[in-house]
# Entry
Amino acid sequence: MTGQRHAATDSPRAFNEPVRLDLSDPDTLRQLWILQRASYAVEARLIGFDGIPPLHETLEQLRATDEFFLGIRDGSRLVGAVSWSRLPNDALDICRLVVHPVVHRRGVATALLDALDSIEPAELTVVSTGTSNLPAVELYRRRGFMPVGKRRIAPGVTVTLLERRYASAAQPIPHS
# Structure
């Protein structure tokens, strides 16, 4: 695994720009499903809990979600995605942020969050992640999110609830 991380980190290849994902497209849906399983398997190891719902989601359940998705491809392969919804108070809820393990620490998550900030301005954005998922907690903190609480999801396992307050300017993102 370490060799893969260094090889991926040293690669100068740039990723495609984030685009909206159409989950009615079977290939896009399957790629997203594979991507999230790989990504959440890493989080499951970090937090010591494999009961993360998207890790066990079927293709049909993923297709039926009411979340909106942006994705980043490396050529034709989906390597990162972020999903969101709007809460009744108009807060932006980041539901999923998944990055394939072979491209960790190459700016994929940052590019996705930058694109989301651009197209979905929000006075309040909320997200949660496994408390023991220190890379994710640190990513959100660097982006201005502050921990506002924790929720126990299993014995010895918590998720940290984070929020950020501010607005940004909206810009269109192309469709895939």
In short: The chain is about 35% helix and 30% strand. The longest strand covers residues 77-86.
